[in-house]
Amino acid sequence: MKASIGGGGGFTLLEDDVYPARIYSIVDIGQQQTPYGEKRQIIITWEIPGEMVDGLPYAISKYYTLSLNDKATLLKDIEAMGKPLPMDKRASFDFTKLIGKTCQLNIQKYEKKDGNERNKIIGISKLMKGIEVGPQVNESIFFDLDEPSDAVYNSLPDWQKKQIVFEPKKAEVSDEGAPFDLDDDDWD
């Protein structure tokens, strides 16, 4: 059951409940200011095929600090969707494997400071046996600032593009073509 609300952009809200969902988008938004300092963040977006809005599945996103340490929310949520991620696999974890991953999202309404209501994910769990998630409708998206793709970037919604912080590439220092050479003795 969905409730449409007035004001605040006309967002459709889901009722507080648990919904079968699928990850279809992971977007690296780069270094962001957080209450704990500057942290690299990603946005993971799920679709809920059983809840259609304007011909598309309801979509909900969650921001994460890009960290897989023991206390990281990202690690806890990844493990909640399936099985533990051993320490020796974390450094080489392939985030593209999360695209298409199904789970259950515990979604709840909350009131923003401006008085508008929104939905948020308050819990993630493995899909219960016998529960099915409909087929994926939205196109899979994976945007990584380590290997950015113009085509993927251009396909992102504007609200995500506005948040991406591109880090300038560091200039490589080279002595090739230097106008003169100095030996160590020349510094005396």
Can you put this structure into words, describing what you see?
It contains four helices and eight strands. The protein is mostly beta strands. Strands 3, 4, 5, 6, 7 and 8 form a six-stranded mixed sheet that branches. Strands 1-2 form a two-stranded antiparallel sheet. A hairpin with a 2-residue loop joins strand 3 (17-34) and strand 4. The longest helix has 8 residues, at 73-80.
Summarize the structure.
By secondary structure, the protein is mainly beta. It has helices at residues 73-80, 87-90, 150-155, 158-161; strands at 2-4, 12-14, 17-34, 37-53, 56-65, 102-111, 117-125, 141-143.
Separate helix tally = 4
**Distance N to C terminus:** 80 Å
Q: Got a strand count?
A: 8
Proportion in helices:
10-25%
Shape: globular
Low-confidence stretches: 1-9, 171-188
**What profile does the largest beta sheet have?**
6 strands, mixed
Q: Name the structural class.
A: mainly beta
Secondary-structure element string: EEEEEHHEEEHH
Strand content: 35-45%
Report mean pLDDT, rounded to a whole number.
86
Overall radius of gyration: 22 Å
Secondary-structure map:
Layout: E1 2-4, E2 12-14, E3 17-34, E4 37-53, E5 56-65, H1 73-80, H2 87-90, E6 102-111, E7 117-125, E8 141-143, H3 150-155, H4 158-161
Parallel strand pairs: 3-8
Antiparallel strand pairs: 1-2, 3-4, 3-6, 4-5, 6-7
Quickly list its features.
4 helices; 188 residues; disordered N terminus; two-stranded antiparallel sheet; mainly beta
